[in-house]
Amino acid sequence: MRVAESILVLSASGIVSGAVAVDRQRSRSYRRRYKRADATPAQQEVRDAFGFIDRVWRNLGPGLQQAWRDWESWRPNFGYNRFQKVNIPRRLAGLPLITDPVTIHP
Questions:
Q1: 71-81 confidence digits (pLDDT tens)
Q2: For labelling alongside 55, which of 64, 69, 88, 105 has CA 20 to 30 A away?
Q3: Which residues, other chains included, contact 84 with Cβ-Cβ below 8 Å and sequence gap of 6+?
Q4: Please, which pLDDT band fits residue 35 given cuts at 50, 70 and 90?
Q5: Angle in degrees, 0-180, between the axes of helices 62-70 and 78-93, rounded to the nearest 10
Q6: Where are the domains of the chain?
Q7: Residue 4: its pLDDT value, please?
């Protein structure tokens, strides 16, 4: 391969043979797509737990959701995040979920 051809490839932008070349002022990137690896059983179990807890949150009544939000109301989305933090490990351990934040000690 001649050097001139290498320089042309490095200064190209766009898709070349399934790879993407990007030439910017301060950097040059050359990326190729890779097949995403399948999730391990442990990863899939955690993903399923996140999805399950999210569905439980959506099915909580407005009163319970507000009770979670009131815990530290100055923090945005804290009620939802706290609900996830408390219940995802419980779901993975096979323990019953906590839907009422009053039962948790801060």
A1: 777 777 788 99
A2: 105
A3: 50, 53, 54, 57
A4: confident
A5: 100
A6: 3-32, 41-98
A7: 44
Question: Mind giving me the DSSP string for 27-79?
Answer: -EEEEE--PPPPPPHHHHHHHHHHHHHHHHHHHS-HHHHHHHHHTTTTSTTHH
Q: By C-alpha distance, which of 28, 35, 86 is closest to 57?
A: 86
Q: What is the helix (H) or strand (E) element at residue 20, kind and residue range?
A: strand 19-23
Q: What six digits make up the tokens of 91?
A: 């779901």
DSSP structural state of residue 16: E
In DSSP terms, 29 is beta-bridged to 22
